[in-house]
């Protein structure tokens, strides 16, 4: 034992992006279709949330909850018999939150054609303790140029999310102060 104080980075070192990057794969069946016969968007969103949750748990080393999901884009319909790969990585970290970027790819389960991107999303997870209170996460360390670009883009999204939340709160407070109830 030593009486010298440890530097914060020794107590809480960063984690490289590759340490928590995850792919979740699933073959789509007829049980997962919408009324048009293609795969229901909600099924894809669940896979996205599951894959992102695995990344958040791995990066933060414990439980993490979905705080938000935004920019969920469906580029192409997913068909029964598609083998879907949901690729997720930690793009950015704050104090207790992490932005997880997700790309959804699909290929025919029995054909060796290249997988096509069918969707993408960004999710914010907050790391929590056993009481549901937020806890700090290790800073993510981007490793490649692509990781560094994603980190910078995530910071832009973070700034916009906070600004939008603040602006809406201010508007609501102002309306409430004017006695406008809805
Ligand atoms: C997410 C949750 C833990 C945030 O708790 P809170 O008391 O508001 O905590 P804070 O305001 O300190 O926010 C914690 C972090 O999450 C971020 N955050 C909170 N709400 C957010 C939102 N809607 N969008 C983006 N980020 C958000 C904050 O910016 C903060 O980031 P930082 O610590 O890196 O700076 C809380 O709202 C919660 O438990 N929500 C339910 C989550 C859940 O059950 N998800 C599954 C849905 S079924």
TrEMBL record:
Enzyme Commission code(s) on record: 3.1.2.20
Alphabetical list of InterPro entries matching this protein: Cytosol_ACT, HOTDOG_ACOT, HotDog_dom_sf, Thioestr_dom
Keyword tags: Hydrolase
Molecular function per GO: fatty acyl-CoA hydrolase activity
Keyword Hydrolase: yes
Enzyme class (EC, first level): hydrolase
Residue segments, region Disordered: 1-20
Signal peptide: none
One Pfam family named in its UniProt record: 4HBT
UniProt superkingdom: Bacteria
Domain HotDog ACOT-type: 18-131
Similarity comment: family membership: Belongs to the acyl coenzyme A hydrolase family.
PANTHER family listed in its UniProt record: ACYL COENZYME A THIOESTER HYDROLASE (PTHR11049), PROTEIN VDLD (PTHR11049:SF16)
Protein name: Acyl-CoA thioesterase
């Amino acid at each position: 034992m030593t009486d010298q104080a440890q530097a914060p980075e020794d107590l809480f070192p960063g984690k490289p992006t590759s340490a928590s990057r995850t792919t979740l794969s699933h073959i789509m069946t007829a049980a997962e279709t919408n009324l048009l016969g293609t795969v229901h968007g909600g099924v894809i969103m669940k896979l996205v949330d599951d894959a992102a949750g695995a990344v958040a748990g791995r990066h933060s080393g414990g439980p993490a909850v979905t705080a938000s999901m935004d920019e969920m884009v469906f580029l192409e319909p997913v068909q029964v018999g598609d083998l879907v790969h949901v690729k997720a990585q930690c793009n950015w970290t704050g104090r207790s939150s992490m932005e997880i970027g997700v790309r959804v790819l699909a290929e025919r389960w029995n054909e060796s054609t290249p997988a096509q991107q069918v969707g993408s999303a960004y999710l914010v997870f907050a790391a929590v303790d056993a009481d549901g209170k937020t806890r700090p996460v290790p800073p993510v360390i981007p490793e490649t140029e692509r990781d560094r670009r994603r980190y910078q883009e995530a910071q832009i999204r973070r700034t916009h999310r906070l600004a939008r939340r603040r602006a809406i709160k201010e508007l609501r407070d102002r309306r409430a102060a004017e006695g406008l109830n809805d």
